[in-house]
User: Fold these one by one.
Assistant:
Number 1:
Amino acid sequence: MKVGLVGFSGSGKTTVYNALTGQKAETGYASRGSGKTNLGVVKVPDARVDALAAIHTPKKITLAEIHFVDVAAPPGAGGRSLDTSALPAMREVEALVQVVRAFPSEDGKPGEPLGELQDLQTELTLGDLAPIEKRLERLKKEKGKPGEIELLGKLKAHLEEGKPLRDLELSEQDQTAISGYRFLTLKPLLIVLNVAEGDVDKPIDPALSAYAAANKLSIIPLSGKLEMELSELSPDEQKAFLADLGLSDTALPRFVRAAYAALELISFLTAGPDECRAWTIRRGTSAVRAAGKIHSDIERGFIRAEVMTFDDFMQFKSEAKVREAGKARLEGKEYIVRDGDIIHFRHNS
Ligand SMILES: Nc1nc2c(ncn2[C@@H]2O[C@H](COP(=O)(O)OP(=O)(O)OP(=O)(O)O)[C@@H](O)[C@H]2O)c(=O)[nH]1
Ligand SMILES: [Mg+2]
């Protein structure tokens, strides 16, 4: 699962990225416009994996991972705009986290979070309109697929109203037809409100909350700089530092969990004496596609998935007993995997 940190220059993407990954990528003016993309991995805390491991005592415990990409966008011409060279990197990721600046900039400008949200929305909308218009132009000369012009026209009209494609009801068939475009406004989006160190506990500006609610976006307030500093400390030092600030916890575990939910991610589990492990998939993923997360051979040779819920397993504390109680199911390729399913894939490969 690849998630892109996006937003305007100086919003704190690299700072948040460092906090998340524990890396030390360069931040601030020195790094500005470098066009350097940072890529790092974050483990998703999951108490269920620990619970499974306590029973199976496996050789190895593996948590789900989110790959974060810090998309270093060279600032576009004229203030708060994006250079279009940033768009291909954004298309590559499966979900977007927009970092917005709510702290005073290095040169003392106050944050304008609502403006940044609206402006990025505009940039992403334009980024989606461009390939649609190009394709429609070509379809004047060449024959497309049946219904293609109508579908693209529908998307275009929606975008021209300033609305993201993720708000549009699309049939499964339409979704497949347009998947090659990797539309930006179709990707799940989570907002990180990057606040000044002293503002972590302040309520979110009502105008901003109203915008987020109207656009069905979740906002996580945190201070990137504070989190980055915390991530450089030992656990004991972290506790002391947090206590000094009157805070109980770092925002990162909360952020990773919220990212998971907002980005419509869930985990399925595999468990046994060798390894207990959580795997990340999008909500709505079929069993055969989930198998492909583990190995393409298992996807290709998929026969059945044996599924039990985490809760049933924890009740009996043994897979054999879950089976005896008739609570293990055999599911086919099209079964939609649920969060917390423990799965054994049967395959011929
Ligand atoms: N006060 C304060 N400053 C912050 C915070 N987060 C980031 N900054 C500062 O804001 C400046 C810009 O942060 P970066 O992380 O480099 O921003 P960016 O979005 O990666 O910028 P580009 O790489 O140019 O796109 C740096 O000087 C950071 O130290 C914060 O939470 N509070
Ligand atoms: Mg940066």
Note: Residues 13-14, 31, 70, 72 surround magnesium ion (ligand 2) (CB under 6 Å).
Number 2:
Amino acid sequence: MINTDTATEIAQGGAFLIKGTNPQSISTHEDYTEEQKMLRQSVLDFIDKKIEPLQKTFDSLEGTKIAPQLLEEMAELGFLGVGVPEEYGGFAANFKTQLAFCEVAFSCYAFGLTAGVQTSLGVAPLLLYGNKEQRAQYLPKIVTAEIKSCYCLTEPSAGSDANSGKSKAVLNEAGTHYILNGQKMWITSAGHADLFFVFAKIDDDPNLSCLIVEKSYGGISLGAEEDKMGIKGSSTRMVFFENVPVPIENLLGERNKGFKIAVNVLNTGRIKLATSVTNNAKKAFKLGINYANEREQFGKAISSFGAIQHKIGEMAANIYAMEAIFCRTASHIDEVRDKLVADGLEILDTKFKSIAEFSIECAIAKVHNSEAESFVIDEALQMHGGMGYSSESVISVHYRNARINRIYEGTNEINRMLIVDMLFRKVMKGKLDLMAPLMRITSEMKNDALLLPKTDGSFFADANRSLQHLKKATLLVAGTAAQKLMTQLKEEQEILIHLANCLIQLYAFESALLRTEKHQDKNLEVRQELTTLLMYKTAAKIAQEAQEALYAFTEGEEAEQLLQAVQTLTHLPPYNLKNARRKVAQYFIEENQYKL
Ligand SMILES: Cc1cc2nc3c(=O)[nH]c(=O)nc-3n(C[C@H](O)[C@H](O)[C@H](O)COP(=O)(O)OP(=O)(O)OC[C@H]3O[C@@H](n4cnc5c(N)ncnc54)[C@H](O)[C@@H]3O)c2cc1C
């Protein structure tokens, strides 16, 4: 049986598959503190005043011209120091507070990317790997936006395979400078950046290093602004480095270890992306529901039709899970960070370790929330009918802007494979024991004892029982795949993706269930229906993904036995999901927005 007794344990990355989580140990959207609410509100006030009126400008290249000035205005209000320690001019907020900020700041049309790079990708390399001198030299000026930064990893021939980049830095004869040559592509904020975190190979090194490169060093030129399908007002350019002299002191972290820097910065970026897209989905939901309440056809508001209510129910369930995922992950990260601080570690070192611990969950959050965002926006656009297809409509801007979120910060395909790869690496390193629970489940399968005893019939007891069953089904398939295919598994991408899909959906459902369980005093009926919708979706998804995975690597009697086990574990009793969606829809139609 899967262990659910975790009341006293510190959360551990990837362990959600085999362990339960105490609902009281996680933080949720409802748990924002007064301080976090005030921060969000002041950012929202800034956005309402300064960005909303320029929404159209940010849907054009014109936005790239005004973004730097607006970034400076944000800096004047102190927002850009959210993750930076006080000694460098910031206010060293915990991770949940950083996400509270980026939920609203990164989701204001194309300008969100400018704010995002300056407070995430364009500062994280220094926060995580900078030495004292480097931090002191640059961080205070990044916080005030006196220095605007960007993150240069991708090259024309090196995208997902980032470590294959050709940019090269050669140590000069005097041993004082690296002479940097190369070309980077798709660089957000490059148009206004003064500081470039550049990943390049030094001399004949096999792996990347990371250099801090100031524009003032000379030899840097830019391509034209990319004409993109969305986020048009965010600067995206090629960057060319021609014999740029970079002082040797500007090597960030260790030589040849730049890929590790890139990966860890992206872990942070992924969970922040998962957070900001949640707010995009909420904005789209509001646009959709406002329109559906106003638009009449056949003599009625279209929001009164079952087909529209079906959409509203599904959209709301997705958003409920999106919020639950990023808040839960943030609280796990903060919990580990607090423990490391208590053990005597420096705060900046703990940040790296606590986020790295939850790299699986960060990747899950990125994939789930970017796809849920696309789903919600697509449905909101559909609710607008022809008006949604007009390029004048705001929902069509969201539609075009959202598409990038499944591509950058690691494509969703790469992230899916990483999720499974990272999980099995933890197992191989002895950090996670999947084998003992797998052996128990295999023995239960042979003894026809897979199902847990029936509960008292209460909502939470039943939902938790189903959650345990879904975890067992996922573990059974993932564990059997690893045992049978061993090293060959990493070549079987289709199977990896099936397994990742099970894990993603499982984490989404569990996060939503924990949230509902923690906040039983608030709109319980609606929350239970939202959770139920997610539970049925998860069971159906795991049934399908697990089945297809098993088809791919088992056969004969073994296949039949495993398929039967998956069917047993993913079976749920009949429930009127149509009514559940209608109940949820009625609630949100009245609210005329996503508000719980
Ligand atoms: C608007 C925008 C802003 C960006 N901002 C930045 C930035 O600020 N800094 C930066 O460094 N980069 C940035 N990027 C680059 C972005 O991170 C890359 O586009 C992304 O990593 C994918 O790389 P690629 O475009 O070369 O696609 P490719 O790697 O060529 O991938 C193409 C397709 O093949 C799939 N694929 C690739 N490899 C595999 C594999 N091993 N197995 C299975 N499928 C695979 C991918 O999933 C994808 O579907 C930005 C990109 C855009 C479009």
Note: The CA atoms of residues 93 and 116 lie 16 Å apart.
Number 3:
Amino acid sequence: MDFSFTHEQELIRASLREFCEKEVTRERVREWDENLNFPPQELWDKMAELGFFAFSVPPEYGGEGADMVTAMVAFEEISKASTALALAVGATVGFGARMLELGSEELKGNVFPQLAKGKVKFSLGLTEPAGGTDILGAISTYAVKDGDDYVINGQKIYITGAHVADYINTVVITDRENPKRSRALSTFMVPTSAPGLDIRLIPKVGVHACGACEVFYDNVRVPAGNLLGTLNNGWYELLNTLNPERIGVAMISLGLAEAVFEDCLSYVKERHAFGKPIGQFQIIQHYLADMAMGIELARNLIYKCAWLCDNGYPYHVEATMAKLYAADVALKAATTGMEIFAGYGYTMECDMQRYWRDSQQMVFSPISQEMSKNFLAQCYGLPKSF
Ligand SMILES: Cc1cc2nc3c(=O)[nH]c(=O)nc-3n(C[C@H](O)[C@H](O)[C@H](O)COP(=O)(O)OP(=O)(O)OC[C@H]3O[C@@H](n4cnc5c(N)ncnc54)[C@H](O)[C@@H]3O)c2cc1C
């Protein structure tokens, strides 16, 4: 067994870390959070110069086609610097690049080179107001063929980054006659400039700099050539993106926990009570030890998933565990961080409250902790409980 990273991966880590220290500073992250500012295009351009977006683009379309471990090394540094930035770029890389691989040669030839340059942004439009866990039961947005186009009507909700996206990969019903929803869905790459599309930002508790939106489709027309994958097979094709997405969200959670740990470690050395640094009290030391252990375990699980993926092994069980566990580690770390920082942690000038707010999102999205456990139990042969 070899747990080490390659020389190239270490170089990528070092260059992303240096980039984040310079460009994704605490001050900037705080300002984005306070003003609900999506990370600016200028930052996407600089990340593209570093080759970040090219990792997810196949070499034949001007990318690097990096393996999952390498992509995760880069993503860990981004996630540590800013949860919002990680989610923002993660949506484009995770949903955009992965689903575009299912598109026509023309779509891939047009969009992949732009994606590698950081010039296009993607969202995934799956969840609907009737529910996110039971997607197949809740979905009602549909598309009907009309000449060379499909016409979409319906509504999506909580769509990350839709307000700034160039495209929303929208999952719709394309066979309304089929009672088996899993065989009736398709995904279309919908340009946000399409007439009939209305996008509204939803005020939310955390990850302010990466907004989530309601999206209304009123006779939105998309060329049939914007279909990603095979007509009516969208559900099964979507499932292929879920495991990488779970690893990505696990990494965002891990980055958050690592940032919490670093802040806590510094603070307990500086803050005094009863004439000593609070880091001298055993209970505070135990808090830090627990956090460090959770981080180490989550990190090992995430990189193991990435390794399994790169080496062609199944990893659906591990990817679900990684999302579940890392989200829990982040939530617990941020909650403990609030205890350690106490009064100061509760003020808006302290980053701990942001970590704490941000950590809540990974608990239920993209899959809730409860549903993750349902899935794991079923993987071990237990009957479906719902
Ligand atoms: C900020 C944010 C960003 C998001 N980004 C996106 C995005 O980019 N694209 C997108 O398509 N969606 C997105 N989502 C949607 C997200 O994936 C859903 O919120 C999530 O799947 C949960 O769905 P729900 O909120 O409707 O909860 P519900 O489905 O209503 O679930 C409510 C509760 O019931 C529990 N529950 C439901 N069924 C079961 C069961 N069988 N057994 C046990 N417990 C159960 C759940 O675990 C949960 O605790 C986002 C959501 C938010 C809030």
Note: DSSP finds twelve helices and ten strands in the chain.
Number 4:
Amino acid sequence: MRREGCDPMNVRMSDVLCDFCGREWSDSLPMVEGHQGSCICGECLSAAYRTVVLSAPQEPAQAGVRCTLCLENRDDPMWHAAAGHACACRRCVRQSAAVLAKDPDFGWRKPDSGDIRPAVP
Ligand SMILES: [Zn+2]
Ligand SMILES: [Zn+2]
């Protein structure tokens, strides 16, 4: 999202905030844009990717829950941010991860299943 009151003709990095955690876009925090100015940062994306892509939850999306990034109601598993009401569907998480991972400047890589600790029996 954009910071409230920022100049739309002169948007700076610090005017771009993650819709999920509210932090500013910076050199150390990459950001991917969704629709209508919605944004997800690299850290939220890592958490989302682990949850909805690697862990593959079985529960379907709740009815009436709209993805913050694509603004659609989808049957995909949704990742809910710890704070606020923003959520991201699996399709958007996959697409955003592909965008971030492609650009070496961001230094971001997709979490792999080795990053998930096996559940203790
Ligand atoms: Zn974030
Ligand atoms: Zn979506």
Note: Residues 61 and 75 are 5 Å apart (CA to CA).
